[in-house]
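Question (not urgent): is this output format expected?
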Amino acid sequence: MRCISMTLAAVSLCMASVAQAQTPELRKYVEFAVGPTFGHKSDLSLGVEGAFPLNESFDVFAEGGRMRNVATSDLDAAAAVVGQFIGGTGVAKQSVGYFDAGVRYLIPTQGQFEPYVSLGLGFAKVSRSATFTVGGTDVTSQLLDRFGVQLGGDLLEDETKALLTFGLGAHFTVRNNVFGDVSYRFGRIFLAEQGLSTNRLQFGIGYRF
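Got this back:
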């Protein structure tokens, strides 16, 4: 009987050690990310992110950043109409500043990479601008006086609206507490007239603590 008790105790200790070894270390982190945006226009995105764990499977995260130009075909078409009218060319730009927070689910794995999916809610400020040239000369400031053209909100207006994000990516250890992050982030901004979708491919470097 004593032998059985000692055997059970040894097995229990072994199982506890294995369970402890398999339990992922819960850590907060901060991260800086950069990467391209893609869609009708391709440009650059810069952002920061931070998170803290709820449990072994879920984190709460928050991110903020800026996408330099996510202009749509409709925006380019509106600038082209004005450019044609004045006998020149028009170039439109649409930048986005964003902030969102949500939850991140850590997909169980035993490999080198730590995959995850994320869902967030927040807000985004969409800023539109346009530049017009005639014969190589910038005439944007002269549109009204010289050409009688008053630009509308579709080319100049700023909007701050709700943002929904979805992410899919993976962390991997670089050295000690330093990690890398490769991810795709989809965003949907609920603008007044027509929603705007954004796509980001991010490469991040972060620190766990």
